[in-house]
Structure prediction request, 286 residues.
Amino acid sequence: TTMRKTGHLADLFTQACKHEPVDPVFVTSQKRYRKTRPVDVTIARLHHEPDKEMHPGMVKGVERAKSSLFAHIPILVSLAACILCGLYEDWISFSMILVGMLSNGISCWWIGSGRLTFSHPTPAKGSPSACGILNADGDHIVILKGPEGAVNCVTRGKFSLKYQCSENFQRIGLCSLLLTVQFLAQLLLLPQGKKFGQIMFLVTLAVSWMYNSYLASIDCEGIQRHILIKDVLQDPIIKRYTLGTRTAMAVFVLLVLSNPQPSTPYPLEGSGPDDHALRRVLDDLL
Prediction:
């Protein structure tokens, strides 16, 4: 099966393979060969076949604790600004800051109630071991070897947010309506407030902007790669090699595909892709 374009998880897995170190022994043995356009080839042996649907947990560590700690800063600043506007009897600015806190808090809570879900199609019973090739713009080839259910996790799996009931989708629509009303109310009513209240509102807006900038700087794809490699695929064996020419890469890929077992020096008769499949792979590589 030829898929002209794979999903997001295939790209995440390819990026994870690019972070793997190149095999030093293989690099040393390749020094005496000519080099024209080096191409990386990664062999990934997938040993774990996950369930059809699973709910991986979020990454725990310093980054998550830091995000939780920083989240309290805009909350505390907004509360302080709201209290100061109340003390100065600027009730318009007080109400606008309070409406902003409530609308954004409710929206984050409802939208964030979705559960991270990984899903992939279930292979037919008795399916033999599978091989897959990911071609990343011709500069990096990833060979997937393992059970059919493990290979299609990368080629056809997906991450999604799963909500418990259909009411959550209605709530998301209400969140968008609430945020729109908040924006229009602040746009129309805030200029009628006092100067001090307007300054307090701008302070809360600046702090919230800085916190959102921090959230945008977090490597979200790195977190997804960690979940895919550690939780879903459970640390597959990944080895990356660098071939000096595209010809060497094509020959190397065909040899790896024709030999299903790493400990066997020659292909096993009746196993692995047939000659017709290997010829199609060669044509695609050429």
About this structure: Strands lie at 39-45, 53-54, 115-119, 130-136, 140-146, 158-162, 237-243. Confidence is low (pLDDT under 50) at residues 262-271.
